[in-house]
Amino acid sequence: MTNSLLEMRDLEVAFTLGKQDYPALQQMTFQIGEKETVGIVGESGCGKSLTSLSIMGLLPGTAKITKGEIRLDGKSLVTSSAQQWSGVRGKDITMIFQDPMTALNPLMPVGKQIAEMALLHLGVSRKEARQLALDMMAKVGLSRVDRLYGDYPHQLSGGMMQRIMIAMALICQPKLLIADEPTTALDVTIQAQILNLLRDMNHSTGTAMLFISHDLGVIREVCDRVIVMYAGYMVEEAPVEELLDHPRHPYTAGLLQSLPGADKRGRILYTIPGRVPPLTGRRTGCPFAGRCPSATAICAAEVPQMKKAGEQHLVRCHLVAG
Amino acid sequence: MKWKQLVRNKPFVIGASLIGLLLMLMVMSLFYTPYGPNEMNTAMRLAHPQPSHWWGTDNFGRDIFSRIVEGTQTAFLIGVSSVAIGLFFGLFIGAIAGYRGGWTDEVLMRLMDAKLAFPGILLAIMLVSVFGPGLGNTIVALGLMSIPAFARIARSGFIQYKEFNFVKAAVARGAGATRIIVHHILPNIASPIIVAASLRFSGSILAEAGLSYLGLGVQPPDPSWGRMLSEAQPFIVNAPWYVLITGSVITVMVLGFNLLGDGIRDVYDNKS
Amino acid sequence: MNRELLKVSGLTKHYPLPRQGLMEKKQVVRAVDGISFRIREGEIFGLVGESGCGKSTTGQMLVQLVKQTEGELYFQGEPVSGLSESRMKALRRDIQIVFQDPYSSLNPKKTIGWTLEEPLIIHRIGDKLQRRKIVSETLEQVGLDASYMDRYPHELSGGQKQRVGIAAALVLEPKFIVIDEAVSALDVSVQSQILNLLKELQEKRGLTYLFISHDLNVVEYISDRIGVMYLGKIVEIFEAGVADKGPLHPYTRALFSAVPDVHKRKEHAVLQGDVPNPIEPPGGCAFHPRCPAVMDICRSEVPQLRKVGSGHEVSCHIYAEGE
């Protein structure tokens, strides 16, 4: 394994509702190596977006880090001041979102928005920033960049806007790019283009990537390693082929089985009974115990720890022998 | 209704208490006032507030408290009737414009714009000068003034909600226009309309005061706060309480309705 | 083979755009541009395509929420346009729609019971007591119980709302339901529950579906036949799940190849460029600027949908020779 770039250790994030704290992320411990692409997958409310926001230092006002550590290149982000954090954000760690339309300023030409990033973080002149932006736009596969530079977001298609977002995110050569459902709002043929681009950029620039998605197929396409989350916990972590071909956690396995597809025609789909417990209704024990087909007494009583189930394969389940 | 949230909302509670107090005074005035509202006592002209006349007397020796209390009837009558007129026609026009769309919408809304472009009070002055002053004409004029505001709110609500899937689904199930409007759209735009109504209420009362101040509104002997204010003006030095008390009562009512409207808006806009 | 339930012939929808200037020519968006297909009784017909291809407009024309500009729609052999108001109302009992977004498809101010009872009131079915009975039975069929009648939409999860949306389409016992992206907003574990429910209801009640989705995995799983749309036209119709009858049209192939697979990392033929502007679609075959197998004829002549095998139609010049 390569050197670790980002390290999260036992992170806990809680929402304060009324007078009570409700933990939304617990025992989050993982690393992202240099140049590595790590995926986080899970259903809505599992905490995958919260994980990325806590790395960016952009947690909503009602949420706070209650425990644990996030380190970038060995430097703690949790203890750094708001000012230090904003120096890291946008330069060392950047982010792209699901909906590029709302992430771009509608009143500023797209090229200028890219150049602004360089101006803000690289200490270059306006002219140099413009040139850097044009180069970057060409690198992300946009054509006729001189003309495109002055266009406004509403003049571009969704795929082109996402390319602009990627150019903005990569212009300062960050160490880590967080991509939060970057292709969910796009059509499949455009999704394929963007996934190819992200993979190419990862290879050519060496920027590590944290890729968040609900789509296991997309995860397979881009990630080296993947973390499955459920109800605020990591429940499984392994290299992507290993995890998708030999899932060990009952939740991961159930998720894979319930995917529709041509191969399951004419059969009833597997379903995971029940639904994800809401933030305010999470009880003790394994977070998945209430829906798990093979839960036993210990599952309801005790939160299992992440344990080794193979080389580089970690599972949070009482039923998997360590 | 979200009574629990409303009861915890300060502006709403204060507004409701102020309006409640004035409503109680109005009900009382139907049966009892300390003096007859038009009962003159030439021996007691411009008397300052004292135990026999709580808020003093005016230049004819009439009891100000009795006249103010009697005036609540006019104020509420004008408020309720003019808002009712505005609401009825405004909703009707706005609903047709928003639901039908196309050039029906275009024509109706340009008409409303033309009306909005006219300063409301000028329009009212014009109407009253043509048809003559008096309670009835004042109400009609103020009612007409408030139509465009309601029409706009209703129209935008209809345009927004007719695209909602639950409205489309109801159409697909065979629901007619009346059913769509009454059951599917109106309940969803009720809260902005209630807010607008409470704000219009205070606007109408204020406009009536203005008209009456100019001598174009409610005619004597019907008591009106606006006219009282105008009558009090010459005595602002000799009997400042006359102006102050009359002005304050108008302020309290306007404030009450505005707070009420703000409170309802707070509660309904925060949560959808 | 079952008999035909619905036939669409040359169905077209043009939306006028606001004039740019007084002298300018009025422009139109060709949302749907002359499509024809038939759906048999008891069949699930999948309709796929990327955003803006016209699949949702097609669905809304089938339930007559949108009036076609041209073309005709036949339900049980009878043309739908020009029906009297009472016949139209009767037809609305037979054809229903379930929408994508469970959040906007239920009236937030009404209880679930009210929403489910409304169609019965509109069509004057039963008395109060009978209607309550129908409503609670329908709720049970979609996996909810009668206690949901007194709840409001905001008290329900996304999956539960979608179940209510399905129940609302079912109370009138329709023959045909348009399902417009009804599982797209749901999480995987909820999606599989709803797909199973839709399949079960279809089998039990002999329903016919038009299943619109951008999710090809879902469509391949559930459909008997699949229609593929591109820029307002149907470019291919083929039977799903028959290996040797796989798609032929270059667009269909690119579309299916672009879908990520959980089982293996694919090297796919990535389609270049974006979907063209539907106001000024390219001449000839609308797909020719992006087509990897483009020929001269494609730039000038519009290909027609032709039968290339049983249950298989393609609109592409490559497959036109064998006639």
Protein traits:
heterotrimer; A: 322 residues; alpha/beta; Rossmann fold; eight-stranded mixed β-sheet; four-stranded antiparallel β-sheet; 12 helices; 12 strands; 25% strand; globular; C: 323 residues; 29% helix
Poorly predicted ranges of chain C? none
Largest sheet of chain C: 8 strands, mixed
Distance between the termini of chain A: 22 Å
CATH architecture of chain A: 3-Layer(aba) Sandwich
Overall number of strands of chain C? 12
Largest interface: A-C, 41 and 40 residues
Number of domains of chain A: 1
**Helix percent band of chain C:** 25-40%
Radius of gyration of chain A: 21 Å
Task: List the helices and strands of chain A in order.
Answer: EEEHEEHEHHHHHEHEHEEHHHEE
Structural class of chain C: alpha/beta
Helix content of chain A: 25-40%
Cα-atom radius of gyration of chain C: 21 Å
Mean pLDDT of chain A: 91
The global form of chain C is globular
User: Numbering strands along the chain, what is their spatial order in the largest sheet of chain A?
Assistant: 6-7-8-3-9-10-12-11
Mean of residue pLDDT values of chain C: 89
Largest sheet of chain A: 8 strands, mixed
Brief rundown of the structure:
Chain A is an alpha/beta fold and 322 residues long. Chain A contains twelve helices and twelve strands.
What does it look like?
- The complex is a heterotrimer of chains A (322), B (272) and C (323).
- By secondary structure, chain A is of the alpha/beta class.
- Chain A has helices at residues 48-56, 82-88, 100-103, 110-122, 126-139, 145-148, 158-170, 188-205, 216-222, 240-245, 250-257, 297-301, and strands at residues 4-17, 20-33, 37-41, 63-72, 75-76, 93-96, 176-180, 208-213, 225-230, 233-239, 306-310, 313-316.
- Chain A has one domain: 3-Layer(aba) Sandwich (Rossmann fold).
- Chain A is 34% helix and 25% strand.
- In chain A, the strands form two sheets. Chain A has an eight-stranded mixed sheet with strand order 6-7-8-3-9-10-12-11, with helices on both faces.
- The model of chain A has no long low-confidence stretch (mean pLDDT 91).
- Chain B has one domain: MetI-like (MetI-like fold, Orthogonal Bundle), CATH 1.10.3720.
- Helix content of chain B is 75%, strand content 0%.
- Chain B is built from ten helices and no strands.
- In chain B, α5 (120-131) crosses α6 (135-162), α7 (165-172) crosses α8 and α8 (177-213) packs antiparallel against α10 (240-270).
- Chain B starts with a helix and ends with a helix.
- The model of chain B has no long low-confidence stretch (mean pLDDT 84).
- Helix content of chain C is 29%, strand content 23%.
- Chain C has helices at 55-62, 85-94, 112-122, 128-141, 158-170, 188-205, 216-222, 250-258, 296-300; strands spanning 4-16, 28-40, 44-48, 70-75, 78-79, 95-98, 176-180, 208-212, 225-230, 233-239, 306-309, 312-314.
- In chain C, strands 6-7-8-3-9-10-12-11 form an eight-stranded mixed sheet, sandwiched between helices. In chain C, strands 2-1-4-5 form a four-stranded antiparallel sheet, with helices on one face.
- In chain C, α3 crosses α4, α4 crosses α5 and α5 packs parallel to α6.
- The longest helix of chain C is centred in the middle third of the chain and has 18 residues, at 188-205.
- The two termini of chain C are 26 Å apart.
- The interface between A and C is large, with 41 and 40 residues.
